[in-house]
Amino acid sequence: MENSIHVADKLHWVGVRHPDLKVFDDLFPTHNGTTYNSYLIQGSKMTVLIDAVKEPFSEELFRKIEEQVPLNKIDAVVVSHTEPDHSGAIVHLLDKNPDMIVYCSKAGENFLKQLLNRDFKSHIVTEGEELDLGGRTLRFVLAPYLHWPDTIFSYLVEDEILFPCDAFGAHYCSDRLFDDEISEFYADFHFYFDCIMRPFKDKVRDALAKIKDLPIRMVCPSHGPVRRSTGDFAIESYARWSVAPPEGGKPKALLAVLSSHGNTREMADVIKAELETQGLDVIGFALSDMRDDDYRNALEQADVLVIGTPTIQRDAPPHVWHALAMISSVTPKTKVAAVFGSFGWSGEAVKMVEQRLAGLKYKLAAEGVSFRFTPTAENLESCRKFAEQIAATVLTEE
Ligand code: FEO
Question: Ligand 1 mean position to 86 CA, how many Å?
């Protein structure tokens, strides 16, 4: 049976390994399992637990903690965010230690009340607030949306150790804890960012700015290896992956089209030509054979998303819904869009896609255009005006 692991003086990893996990949160494949990292810090005045573990692993967490201290000697638990893979065991920990104080953000306290459905003592931390553990200091950094609204980082000042919640983590499980004991986990590290942090690139930039002047000797994330050799690399990787879209140059339109019989494509050709005439660069995608990665990158560069969709069986085709579903997996540069398309029998798709975009908080750059079967010269002139209106909206917002 595995024991707690010494990380630094009076600082132990008391987390658990979950090597058999195949899909995290029923959403993301985990190619090498995962760990739920929990850290026990002992000062001369206080003993603090940084995060707990997923509920089914509670007893293993408790056993590892008890190698260091009795459960009722934990003074506080820092809830870096309230997602159940880290907060699940807290309900049982509170049963054993009801006086333990939960340190968390305001949003974290609200979430935790509804996750635990029980009373608990709490302390809401503020930006830069410090907790004197006795001989060592824990400082809190608010990092909302990395990757939950309630996220906080903790920084052990004298030890120069950062506990950044899920940031800089990886779903990776081996029988070792430290990065320099493991040959390679870059692919899992990058995939983790892509799945978990990519929708919040702007928030990642905000958080990196807050920690940029901190001396950081070790990074202790809530999943995967502890980085005692490559903490800088992890932080630099996040800076590179979350860089803001370049400024200047022509505004860009992402023109994503599905055309079953060529009619929506004919409309798209006129729209593309007019957008270019108006001074926009057009990045074109055929939704039937695009690479998801290329489309997601384009979403993060484009000033406007223009979707062309036919109506098939009174609906937009699955490829179109897939393109819409990917929006929430990235940080779009803007939330401006327009929709057009041809139809044969009915023609619901354009309105349905517009409604979906509205649900995603997009603003329409122009009212959608939709025509039956082969577009006439008059229809194509409407498409040109539609593109002219899109360009005017984009250029106004530049
Ligand atoms: Fe690892 Fe966001 O929970």
Answer: 7
Q: d(Cα 340, Cα 242) in Å, to the nearest integer?
A: 32
Number of Cβ within 10 Å of residue 141's Cβ equals 21
Question: What pLDDT is stored for residue 188 in this prediction?
Answer: 97
Q: Ligand 1: which atom is nearest the Cα of residue 25? A: 3
Task: Please answer whether residues 88 and 58 qualify as being in contact, where contact means their C-beta atoms are separated by less than 8 angstroms.
Answer: yes
The answer, yes or no, to whether any atom of ligand 1 lies below 6 A from the CB of 54, is no
Amino acid identity at 250? K
Which ligand 1 atom is nearest residue 147's CA?
2
Determine the pLDDT at residue 1: 73
Q: Does the C-beta of 222 come closer than 6 Å to ligand 1?
A: yes
The DSSP 8-state label assigned to residue 100 in this structure reads P
Residue nearest to atom 2 of ligand 1 (CA): 83
- Give residue 141's pLDDT band: very low, low, confident or very high (50, 70, 90): very high
Q: What is the mean pLDDT of the chain?
A: 97
Domain with residues 252-397, CATH architecture: 3-Layer(aba) Sandwich (3.40)
Cα 318 to averaged position of ligand 1 atoms, centre (Å): 30
Q: Sketch the domain layout of the chain as residue ranges.
A: 5-241, 252-397
> pTM of the predicted model, to two decimals?
0.95
Distance set, CA 395 to CA 75, 253, 278 (Å): 57, 11, 9
Looking from the CA of residue 166, the nearest atom of ligand 1 is 1
130-132 β-sheet, strand order = 130-132, 137-142, 152-156, 161-163, 218-219
Which pLDDT does position 397 carry in this prediction? 80
The predicted structure's pLDDT at residue 183:
86
Topology of domain 5-241, CATH: Metallo-beta-lactamase; Chain A (3.60.15)
CA–centroid distance, 154 to ligand 1, in Å, is: 15
